[in-house]
Design brief:
The chain is an alpha+beta fold. It folds into four domains: 187 residues, no CATH class; 214 residues, no CATH class; 148 residues, no CATH class; 180 residues, no CATH class. The two termini are 35 Å apart. 48% of the residues lie in helices and 17% in strands. A hairpin with a 6-residue loop joins strand 3 and strand 4. Strands 3-4-9-6-8-7 form a six-stranded mixed β-barrel. It has 25 helices and 22 strands. It is a multi-pass membrane protein. It is found in: Cell membrane. Pfam families: FtsX (PF02687), MacB_PCD (PF12704). Keywords: Cell membrane, Membrane, Transmembrane, Transmembrane helix. This is ABC transporter permease.
């Protein structure tokens, strides 16, 4: 019986090649998109699921409670030792410090090579917490020793080729020689610590004494603390006990620390601590369902539209003894055959477009994931669901046809049913497309607003170059003078970090003037020379710029307007001349000027209260303002001077506007994907519309001929076919607008500085769908409208 269903289904599909092709292509695009989304979702849901004791691994994080709550994925450097020695909650506790983009030199002379990699300084117990197995190692050696390292298999090949890496050395950051004492099995990239170089934690003090020393005085975002808890621990009870630590070690701090245990499975999905927002994954999952739903709607619409022309076939089947269930399964079989072809084509489309998808998200998704049993379950479920949902309604509809009316030719289009349902489905299809287009317009408008708004400082044509070594003030001034002499260079400034798009942030508390206590809020410290304000075009609103001095102490600072607002000071002039104490007393200085507020964070966060001061030994970058002309030559000239000052280091200039734009890199990627999926939804919808109009034009050929004989022109006939669709689009717009408005309003709530949702976003989306619909149906309509009416009237 089943074989007979399939055979008849195949014959019917071959008979109607155009409609079959439209259905297969629409479903294939939906399937292909859904497969890519499936790979994307499975990638994210696979994070850190390979650790043997994953159910007992926690990261200790900090809630900094000031005038607002700030979430830090770190703890003070002293925490790990106290948690390990003073409490009995964990089997193992380990700190790691992650550094990004540091230089490695391997080999010497012509055989030597230099490149930049991320690296981790790890305590030995980190490898007893995480499942990162050693493949080979030097006996009697461990990461207890300074200047030793484990590296992954792939990193060993990159550094040393096919040779044995054990016992070999590399130079890290042009400062310390590190010996390789172990090779780790390649770990999945879906790890909370994805780096491939693990250097002994005891080496860290040679680079950075803050993370190495046992201090409670601050938090570095580079540091993370992991713990393997004993079984059956009460997490809430542990967190309650940990509330005593700030009271004991930070009794005078206004910055209240609350230490929390974050389970390993939560790290990748908690946006408070730098993880991805789970809502994004849900949105992509829903988009995948939308695309398949749109393709299913196409199939249902075309199938129900054809019911009238298959009525005689159904009538004969019923007369010959077919029951309703037989006809139902027959149409379901046709749907299954189409879905089977479509899913094969969908896999092929996914394979073809996977490289582009990987480039968009900077991922390395592989089609090998499609060989897993989970994928086959996914495909089976999708195939079954699509076949049933797409085929069941047309099957039920056509199995209800009265055979007497069908065989006598007295069956009317209304007798086959489906007209009202078809309109509802078309409205649904249009509503999905309008929602996606409107959402894309709103997201694009917000990102454009964030990237191109006046940030309060100049970011155009400013080149940022690093200072990899600590230099004396006279050396920095000499290098700045060399840069300033380059034709095309306008201004030069040395600093800890740029005003916005910063890679270095220094937060601390302050005590203002005669007030006895530190303030409840935190400030950001920007260390810079006296050219900073001029180079970045940050205007003063009161007072003057600070003067540079040759001592290590900070005597004068410039602050921003926001600091005055937080302090409750009525005018910027009132701040000038007042004393402030910051960084636990390290900074004691006079406020000599107030600058206009500038955006030091992205638009999701408020402008911070800021102080700008001079402290040469903390400078990490030099900012070079150019005239924007002959840029390549200017960069080469900068590189020559820079390489001469920092021999052996890799020269990597970065434009500040690119760095600022990178703050919205994730949103830009999601916007790109939103555009792609919106286009796919429209394409699938257009295929369905083309199929419907092909059917309706064929159905009304004689009518068109009669209308032309009676004097109708081409415009009248075009209006005849488009008017109904335009009415459906307007209804879809009324449905889609409040839905899109609500969800995009929720999305915009994540931005402190945001645009407004305007009515014309939705009007433009509706207009776009109308134009696309008009283009889609015009070809076939005009083809028939321009046909000789004599031929139309002869059509049976």
């Amino acid at each position: 019986m089943f074989k007979n269903y399939i055979l008849i289904a195949w014959r019917n599909l071959i008979k109607r090649k155009v409609f079959t092709a439209i259905n297969i292509l629409g479903l294939a695009i939906g399937f292909g998109s859904s497969i890519l989304i499936y790979l994307f979702l499975t990638y994210h849901f696979s994070f850190d699921n390979f650790h043997e004791n994953g159910d007992r691994i926690y990261r200790v994080v900090t809630e900094e409670q000031r005038d607002y709550v700030d979430y830090e994925s770190s703890v003070p450097p002293a925490f790990a030792k106290v948690f390990r020695e003073d409490y009995n909650y964990a089997e193992k506790v380990a700190k790691v410090v992650s550094w990004e983009n540091y230089q490695l030199n391997v080999g010497e002379g012509t055989n030597g090579k230099s490149f930049k990699e991320d690296a981790v300084f790890a305590e030995p117990d980190f490898f007893n917490i995480m499942t990162l197995p050693l493949l080979d190692n030097l006996s009697n050696r461990s990461l207890e020793e300074p200047n030793t390292a484990y590296i992954s298999e792939s990193m060993a090949y990159k550094m040393y080729g096919d040779g044995n890496p054990l016992g070999k050395t590399f130079l890290f950051d042009n400062k310390e020689t590190i010996e390789v004492i172990g090779v780790l099995k390649n770990a999945p990239k879906t790890s909370v610590v994805p780096e491939e170089i693990f250097i002994s934690y005891f080496t860290l003090e040679k680079f950075n004494d803050f993370n190495a020393e046992e201090t409670w005085g601050g938090i570095s975002s580079d540091l993370q603390c992991f713990a393997l808890l004993h079984p059956n621990q009460n997490i809430a009870q542990i967190e309650e006990v940990l509330t005593e630590l700030p009271k004991r070690h930070r009794p005078d701090s206004k910055n209240k620390h609350v230490y929390k245990l974050q389970h390993l499975s939560d790290i990748h999905f908690n946006p408070n601590y730098g993880g991805i927002n789970p809502a994004v994954l849900w949105i992509f999952g829903v988009i995948g369902l939308f695309l398949i739903a749109v393709a299913c709607i196409n199939f249902i619409n075309i199938s129900t539209a054809q019911a009238f022309y298959r009525s005689k076939e159904i009538g004969i089947r019923k007369v010959l003894g077919s029951f309703k269930q037989h006809l139902f399964w027959q149409f379901l079989s046709e749907t299954f055959v189409i879905s089977l072809f479509a899913i094969g084509l969908g896999v092929l489309l996914a394979v073809l477009f996977l490289p582009s998808f990987n480039n968009l998200f900077e991922l390395n998704l592989s089609m090998n994931s499609l060989l897993s049993y989970r994928f086959f379950i996914f495909i089976f479920v999708v195939l079954a669901a699509v076949s049933f949902l797409s085929g069941s309604y047309p099957g039920i509809l056509m199995s209800r046809i009265v055979p007497v009316l069908a065989l006598k030719g007295k069956l009317k289009h209304n007798d086959t049913g489906g007209s009202a349902t078809r309109k509802v489905l078309v409205v649904t299809q249009f509503a999905i497309s309008i929602t996606l287009i409107a959402a894309t317009l709103i997201i694009s408008n917000q990102i454009d607003y964030a990237v191109n708004s006046d940030l309060g400082f100049d970011k155009e044509s400013i080149v940022m170059v690093s200072i990899p070594n600590e230099l004396e003030k006279v050396q920095i001034n000499s290098l700045k003078d060399q840069f300033a002499q380059i034709p095309g260079v306008i201004k030069v400034s040395a600093c800890l970090s740029s005003p916005g798009g910063s890679i270095n942030n220094w937060g601390t508390s302050i005590k203002y003037h005669t007030r006895p206590d530190f303030e409840e809020f935190s400030i950001q410290v920007k260390l810079a020379d006296a050219n900073y304000l001029n180079t970045f075009d940050i205007p003063l609103v009161a007072g003057r710029n600070f003067f540079e001095n040759n001592s290590d102490s900070i005597a004068e600072v410039v602050v921003n307007e926001k600091l005055g607002q937080k302090l409750g000071v009525s005018t910027p002039e009132e701040l000038v001349g007042k004393q402030i104490t910051a960084n636990g007393g390290y900074v004691k200085a006079t406020i000599v000027g107030v600058v206009k507020d500038f955006h030091d964070n992205d638009f999701t966060e408020e402008i911070s209260p800021i102080i700008i001061a001079n402290q040469t030994r903390w400078f990490d970058e030099i900012a070079i303002k150019t005239n924007g002309q002959n840029t390549r030559h200017v960069l080469d000239q900068i590189g020559e001077y820079w390489s001469s000052a920092f021999q052996g280091y890799i020269y990597e200039p970065r434009f500040l506007d690119d760095r600022v734009a990178e703050q919205y890199e994730t949103e830009q990627r999601y916007l790109s994907l939103s555009k792609v999926f919106s286009a796919l939804a429209i394409l699938i919808g257009c295929l369905g519309l083309y199929g419907l109009i092909l059917f309706f034009v064929g159905q009304r050929t004689k009518e068109i001929g009669i209308r032309k004989v009676l004097g109708s022109n081409i415009a009248n006939i075009l209006v005849l076919f488009t008017a109904d669709f335009f009415r459906l689009i307007l209804i879809a717009g009324l449905v889609a607008t409040p839905i899109a408005w609500y969800f995009m309003e929720q999305w915009l709530q994540g931005y402190t500085y945001r645009t407004q949702i305007h009515w014309w976003f939705f009007a433009l989306a509706i207009l776009a769908i109308m134009i696309i619909t008009l283009i889609t149906i015009s070809y076939q309509t005009l083809k028939v409208a321009t046909t000789n009416p004599v031929k139309s009237l002869r059509t049976e």
